[in-house]
Design brief:
Layout (H helix, E strand, L loop, with lengths): L7 E11 L2 E10 L2 E11 L5 E11 L2 E13 L3 E10 L15 E13 L3 E12 L4 E13 L3 E11 L3 E11 L5 E9 L3 E10 L6 E13 L4 E12 L4 E11 L2 E11 L1 E5 L2 E5 L16
Antiparallel strand pairs: 1-2, 2-3, 3-4, 4-5, 5-6, 6-7, 7-8, 8-9, 9-10, 10-11, 11-12, 12-13, 13-14, 14-15, 15-16, 16-17, 18-19
């Protein structure tokens, strides 16, 4: 389809005034909506980082406001994070244009501790209130640890309180016998479904070479629906292009669905007097000449 909806824009700029002070501005908008505001980040030397931000949204000539406060601390074995967001009823961003009720306040905190021998554990809590008098609270704990040289395990549990109280559980075990190669198994249960995944992956190299991924997923829902899918994909980085193919087949009681994508991408790069073909460029580069050495 060539229907992408209304055009939109996004802008962010940050400037380091000193080693411990950074200021910035952010803005975004679409037809009938513009949101913008300043930001200040202050480094508390060895005690963490504090960020203050304010924003105004103007939608159909009607203004609304929001403000946030964030704190983050990171040390060798300890990390902590605090967050507070408060906004007026009509404050709107592009992502919240279709929301049934606007968020009024969000608060959150997390703390983590870890060592190389014992693994890492983290605790989190978040609460969100909206202008429809609804409240959502999430409390969770997660633990991750390496099992020998090649294995890693992650397990987490969350309790979600809203109109109904639910529990979520996640377990992942991965095996990496070689660099960029991973075999993993995942299990996840939520309020209304259970999902199991087995995946093998070889990451594509930065330069020339082959990468691939294949996954088998099985999903079971509370209403008795069962779905199984198989989704292999491959990517080859040549000198001048990236060739990629994706395939997915999904089987359920409703039947079988198949889809595939084949793509070729590349770039034309101009650096001084040199123009050439290469793989897609996702960053900026400069060609510097010192004396006779380019």
């Amino acid at each position: 389809s060539n229907d992408y909806g209304e055009p939109a824009y996004a802008l962010i700029h940050r400037y380091g005034m000193r080693n411990d002070v950074t200021i910035g501005i952010h803005a975004e908008g679409t037809t009938g909506l513009n949101t913008f505001g300043p930001e200040l980040t202050y480094l508390l030397h060895r005690s963490g980082v504090v960020t203050l931000a304010a924003s105004e949204s103007v939608r159909h000539d009607r203004g609304a406001y929001a403000g946030s406060l964030a704190y983050q601390y990171t040390a060798k074995n300890l990390s902590a994070r605090l967050f507070l967001l408060d906004q007026s009823r009509d404050y709107t961003t592009i992502s919240s244009l279709t929301a049934l009720e606007q968020v009024q306040m969000t608060i959150g905190a997390a703390v983590g501790f870890g060592t190389g021998d014992l693994g890492s554990v983290s605790l989190e809590y978040a609460r969100q209130d909206d202008y429809g008098d609804r409240r959502r609270q999430v409390a969770g704990v997660s633990y991750s640890r390496g099992l020998g040289r090649d294995f890693n395990m992650t397990v987490s549990a969350r309790n979600i309180r809203e109109e109904r109280s639910t529990q979520e559980f996640f377990l992942s075990v991965s095996y990496s016998p070689r660099r960029q190669s991973t075999l993993s198994a995942r299990h996840q249960s939520t309020r209304d479904r259970i999902m199991d995944t087995l995946e093998v992956m070889q990451s594509a190299p930065v330069g020339e070479g082959l990468g691939y991924r294949a996954a088998v997923d099985r999903t079971a829902t509370d209403d008795g629906q069962r779905t199984t899918s198989f989704s292999p994909s491959g990517q080859y980085n040549s000198r001048y292009n990236i060739f990629r193919g994706d395939y997915r087949v999904e089987r359920s009681a409703a039947g079988t669905m198949e889809s595939y994508v084949v793509a070729v991408s590349g770039a034309v790069v101009a650096a001084g007097p040199v123009v050439g073909f290469t793989r897609p460029v996702t960053d900026s580069f400069a060609l510097v000449q010192v004396g006779d050495l380019p």
